[in-house]
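Consider the following assembly input.
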Amino acid sequence: KQEVTQIPAALSVPEGENLVLNCSFTDSAIYNLQWFRQDPGKGLTSLLLIQSSQREQTSGRLNASLDKSSGRSTLYIAASQPGDSATYLCAVSGYSTLTFGKGTMLLVSP
Amino acid sequence: GAVVSQHPSRVICKSGTSVKIECRSLDFQATTMFWYRQFPKQSLMLMATSNEGSKATYEQGVEKDKFLINHASLTLSTLTVTSAHPEDSSFYICSATVRQGLESEKLFFGSGTQLSVL
């Protein structure tokens, strides 16, 4: 059974810092990995999707990497802003499955 | 810990039939439930937000008459795909929020439903 772990569970940084969120998974037989952000009271917002054959994806200040063989992904946020404050989740897709981590709660202070 | 039960996990149906998917919070009251779908090789996309006792809020491009959402109680939300067609074949997943304290909430997910329309 796939298990997804996100570290750290919470992170607080001053504005402008670069930061890395980590996601690990136990079963490397995945189709893709996704990163989302969740704002209170709202549904998930998809940030980046990395197919199993890809190593990384970039969108603006966000860069996600995938090392399928070691079961790891990282989400790099450059020049963090207070508006980046949210909970970030990663999820891995398998055959008719989607397994989420518990998320990293990020707080970026002005 | 909080558990969200989603049924069925897999359904195969003929084109034109309706399919109901249930999402149930087992040990907590979920004031808000979300419904998502994921097409192969694509991102998970939010379909609608469902609040108990009120009409669901649908995302742009999602047909409310085709994807009927009922959230009649604090523990149950259902998504009915009416007159399903092959293009509705997708992975559907629900989630529910639990408020923790004044400023934070946690999101719990069902196990998903793989819908295949022949």
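DSSP finds no helices and eleven strands in chain B. Ask yourself how this observation constrains the way the partners meet.
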